[in-house]
Structure formats: C-alpha cells, structure tokens
Amino acid sequence: MLISDFDYELPEELIAQHPAERRDASRMLVVERASGTWRDGLFSELPSELRAGDCLVVNNTRVFPARLVGRRVPSGGRVELLLVRELGERGPGVWEALARPARRLEAGARVEFGGGRLAAEVVAVSPSADGRRALRFEPAEDFDALLEELGEMPLPPYIRRGGRGDAVRAEDRVRYQTIFAAPRGAIAAPTAGLHFTTHVAEQLRARGVSIVELTLHVGYGTFAPVRVEDLSEHRVEPERFELGEEAADSINRARGAGGRVVAVGTTSVRALESVADGGGRVRAGGGETGLTITPGREFRATDALITNFHLPRSSLLVLVAAFAGRELVLAAYRHAVRARYRFYSYGDCMLIT
Fold it and tell me: Would you say 108 and 122 are in contact if contact means Cβ atoms under 8 Å apart?
C-alpha cells in the first residue's frame, strides 16, 4: 500500500490555531465501523456514547518544554533546537536534537541560551535525512530546572500565530497538556486526551466506565513524515512506554466481562497492541516500542478509538485507517472538511466504535 493512498484536501483555515474555549466543547464525529456510517456530536456527550463495563485507556505522559531558542557563539546567529531524546550512553547532559538552521551547526559549534546561563556544544552530526545533532549541555546538573525556565512548549509547526517567534503563549503551558499528565518525557501532546475535563471523567466513572492510564512518551517518531512511498518500507521510530500491573489487570477484567477497551489516541493504541497476546490480553511491562501499524494488521486489544484528525500522508492517519478502513476514514474526513470541523492538535476529534 502506498502513502499517497492516504491523502485528502484540507483548507488551511480549518487547522486549529488555538484550543477550544473549553476542553470538552470540541466537536466529535462518531464513526461506526459496522454500519460504515457517521454522525456529528460533541465531546461533552462522550459519556452517553460509552457503556458500563467499558475501559477507557489514556496516555498520561507530560510534555516538557523541549524547544530552545538561543544564539551561536561567537557570531550571535539565531538557533532553534527541538530536543528529541536524551542520549544517556554518551554521558550526562547529552541530547539529540533537531536544529534550525542546521547547516551552521557542525561538530564543535557552540550555542548559548538565556544569555549564557545554559550552553551547549555540538558533539556529533547525524547522517540522517533530518540532520539531527547530538549536543552536550552545560551545566548538566541544573539542566532540568533551566529547561523548565528557558524552554518553550514544542507546538507543531502548523500552529502559526504571526510567526514562529511569538507562536507559543502562556495558555499553551496548560492547554497543551492533558488533565492526566504526570511523568515528564513527551515532546508532543497525546492530543486525543486534550478534550477531557475532570467533569467528563467523573461522568464516565459514574456511568460505570473505568479509566486506566499508561505512559507512552511521544517522541519525534509519532509525527515524523513518512519519507517512502511504499508503506511496507516505513518504520515508526521507537518510543518509551510503560503499562503497570494494575492498569493491565483492569483492561483484562473489562474485556473478560464483555466490556470494550477504548483507546484514547494513537499512542495508547500502539502501547496496547505492543503488549497484547493473540487472545487480546495485555501484560504489564515497558521499554521501547517501534510498532508500525498499517492496514491488514489485526487489532488485538483495541475495540474503539478516540482520536484527533491527522495530517495527510502521516503514519497516524495510516493507523486510524488500519483500524476503521481506509475508505470509511477518508470519507469521514471529507465530511469533516465539509462540516468545518477543526483539524490537528488543537482541533476536534473522532470516536470510532
């Protein structure tokens, strides 16, 4: 199957630039796989769409301020970094990062942030297509605290509010995190979870729906562009995840009693399917998953899915199409465009049953 089979037309004005006034005020397109139909709804109506015994699985990763803007030393030229992952094997304070502009950052180049309070030296240049750099930060012992102070939330590049320099606002520190966010480690939000409020969660529990948490630290692999035409050649970059014993037991009890496992977001799906056996039971555990889901794959532990609308030709759209069928998903997307749904990270969502 080809990545060009997962394309669609999207007017730029439908790309959400800000979150909805209230998290649960987002629209929700309810797609029924069995009938091949859909209907318009609101996310606040989610409790009425689920039933007692269902188990909702959310990703509780917390986004850290992975975007750093600094100056090259001694030229003073502007540099922007997106921290991708810590390279512990290279010693303390070494991170892999995407750089812009990258061409001036060869091995040995130095960058400083916050007027010199944080500095970094390029220690390696990757030969990969995206030209990643490995940088050693100083002082390494104060890095986390300085990053919280000097870093910015890494909003996606399609959020443009008068230019990249002033794109990030104070509200993003709150609204680009889910209400479940706990362990720090993601460079992008698990956006399907952004619609939840404590009120919706309370309504779900009152209805007899259990809510369990897993962790998948969203990395660059989740949203990296698919650079090949043949999907059989694409591999999603590994990301760290963990599913605890209590959560695994809750999921298995729900399925054993006839309840549905409702994954919140494609990241939750990838984690669940990484630890599911042939009978659909999940096991506690963690590590890294590079699971790449494409049409034809059997879903063992996921019965329903809540997900945002994804970019054309993306691995996320491919995963959703694998779950619900390419033709149905693309038809639903065309309806969402006609109905003026809001797309991408701060946009509306789908419930696929």
Answer: yes
Among 327, 314, 332, 340, residue whose Cα is nearest residue 29: 332
- Tell me: do 142 and 211 sit in the same domain: no
With tokens 């969203």, the residue in question is 218
pLDDT at position 88 is: 84
Residues 351, 308: contact at Cβ < 8 Å? no
- The three-state secondary structure class of 222 is helix
**Rounded alpha-carbon distances, angstroms, from residue 294 to 3, 15, 125, 320, 335:** 10, 25, 31, 9, 23
pLDDT in tens, 228-243: 999 999 999 999 999 9
Query: Residue 81: pLDDT above 80?
Result: yes
Would you put residue 259 in left (φ > 0), alpha (ψ -120 to 50) or beta? beta
Please, which residues bridge with residue 282 across strands? Answer: 276
**In percent, how much of the chain has pLDDT > 70?**
98
CB 235 within 8 A of CB 292: yes
Q: What is the CA radius of gyration of the chain?
A: 21
- Assess whether pLDDT exceeds 90 at residue 267: yes
Query: Do 130 and 118 have their domain in common?
Result: yes
- C-alpha 99/C-alpha 320 separation (Å) is 30
DSSP 158: T
Domain count, the chain: 2
Structural domain of residue 327, as residue ranges?
A: 3-63+172-352
Q: What are phi and psi of 29, to 5 degrees?
A: -90, 115
Closest CA to 46 of 264, 259, 303: 264
Both tokens of 324, joined, read 């619900």
- The token pair at 313 is 């030709």
Helix (H) or strand (E) holding 253: helix 245-256
Average pLDDT over residues 281-310: 97
- Is 160 a member of any domain? no
Q: How far apart are CA 84 and CA 185, in angstroms?
A: 10
**Per-residue confidence band for 164, with pLDDT thresholds at 50, 70 and 90:** very low
